[in-house]
């Protein structure tokens, strides 16, 4: 049985409430752990789910409490944690501790780990080995990997090994150089290629397919062709799920934002003001006051 098949069935012995009956009014996440079959049910019932990146304990705790259904330890940690310019340099050994921290903190969210560049391309064996490491050492529940039909056999082997896989098509940041930079994919006739890629991933057993920077019309074609959930980032609002990098969505990262980013908080400004005030109070001697001293 593939994960897409098992995802649509109920889970015997599962104690969590059915999808949609969770306590958080603002979220449709279940009261217990979000499972693949909850995401599949969202697709089947025409509902949406939310996904944010997380790379450490506190944001994972907060997003979990907020009812975000999926937390992604993205290879975007390369840019957003380790200070690299692209996602390419980050390694499995760098991502694993971040993944463990998120997995320990997340009580309900499904924990999804990105396979970084260089950790799955060489062979099916390499991909299975890396996937196993993320579930075993990283405590992830599933992995995401970039690439389309070319990786169908790899996905099939991973799924058979018990590793749930989300595909990632459209703009794939690990292929930034091959793709000639950050460019929208799947315009016009190229939409058919994305549909073929997505169908091949579904047939191989992927439990979902993420689309990055593709026209909404193309995303709609892909979503309509699939029975498994889709997730979008810069792919319009037709997909089952939506994902954003948390530092973009919550306003920690400064600078220019991509068109598809919406900011829901202004964390950078709060931190800046807090740090400035702390510095001033230390320098003028008003901190620590008597109430903070023994
Ligand atoms: O690593 C990442 O942040 C991603 C995005 C698509 C969310 O893969």
From TrEMBL:
Pathway: Cofactor biosynthesis; (R)-pantothenate biosynthesis; (R)-pantoate from 3-methyl-2-oxobutanoate: step 1/2. Keywords: Cytoplasm, Magnesium, Metal-binding, Methyltransferase, Pantothenate biosynthesis, Transferase. Binds 1 Mg(2+) ion per subunit. Its EC number is 2.1.2.11. One of its GO terms (cellular component) is cytoplasm. It catalyses: (6R)-5,10-methylene-5,6,7,8-tetrahydrofolate + 3-methyl-2-oxobutanoate + H2O = 2-dehydropantoate + (6S)-5,6,7,8-tetrahydrofolate. GO terms for biological process: methylation; pantothenate biosynthetic process. Residues 1-30 are annotated as: Disordered. SUPFAM superfamilies: Phosphoenolpyruvate/pyruvate domain. CDD domains: KPHMT-like. GO terms for molecular function: 3-methyl-2-oxobutanoate hydroxymethyltransferase activity; magnesium ion binding; methyltransferase activity. 3-methyl-2-oxobutanoate binds at residues 75-76, 114, 144. It is found in: Cytoplasm. The active site is at 212 (proton acceptor). It is an enzyme of class 2 (transferase). Mg(2+) binds at residues 75, 114, 146. Its main location: cytoplasm. Homodecamer; pentamer of dimers. Belongs to the PanB family. Catalyzes the reversible reaction in which hydroxymethyl group from 5,10-methylenetetrahydrofolate is transferred onto alpha-ketoisovalerate to form ketopantoate. This is 3-methyl-2-oxobutanoate hydroxymethyltransferase. It comes from Arthrobacter woluwensis.
């Amino acid at each position: 049985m593939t994960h897409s098949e098992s995802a649509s069935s109920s889970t015997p012995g599962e104690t969590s409430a059915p999808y949609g009956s969770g306590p958080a009014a603002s979220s449709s996440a279940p009261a217990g752990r979000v499972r693949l079959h909850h995401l599949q049910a969202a697709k089947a019932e025409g509902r949406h789910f939310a996904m944010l990146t997380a790379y450490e304990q506190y944001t994972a705790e907060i997003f979990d409490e907020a009812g975000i259904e999926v937390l992604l330890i993205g290879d975007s940690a390369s840019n957003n944690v380790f200070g690299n310019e692209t996602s390419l340099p980050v390694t499995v050994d760098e991502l694993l501790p971040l993944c463990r921290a998120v997995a320990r903190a997340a009580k309900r969210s499904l924990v999804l780990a990105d396979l970084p560049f260089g950790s799955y391309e060489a062979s099916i064996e390499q991909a299975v080995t890396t996937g196993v490491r993320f579930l075993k050492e990283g405590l992830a529940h599933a992995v995401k990997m970039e690439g389309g039909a070319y990786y169908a056999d790899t996905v099939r082997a991973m799924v058979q090994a018990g590793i749930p896989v989300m595909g990632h098509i459209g703009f794939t940041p690990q292929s930034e150089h091959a793709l000639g930079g950050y460019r929208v994919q799947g315009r016009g006739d190229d939409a058919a290629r994305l549909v073929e890629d997505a169908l091949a991933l579904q047939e191989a057993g992927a439990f979902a397919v993420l689309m990055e920077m593709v026209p909404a019309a193309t995303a709609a074609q892909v979503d309509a062709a699939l029975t498994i959930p889709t997730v979008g980032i810069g792919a319009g609002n037709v997909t089952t799920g939506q994902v954003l990098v948390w530092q973009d969505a919550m306003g920690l990262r400064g600078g220019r934002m991509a068109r598809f980013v919406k900011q829901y908080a202004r964390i950078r400004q709060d931190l800046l003001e807090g740090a400035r005030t702390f510095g001033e109070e230390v320098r003028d001697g008003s901190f620590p006051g008597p109430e903070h001293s023994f």
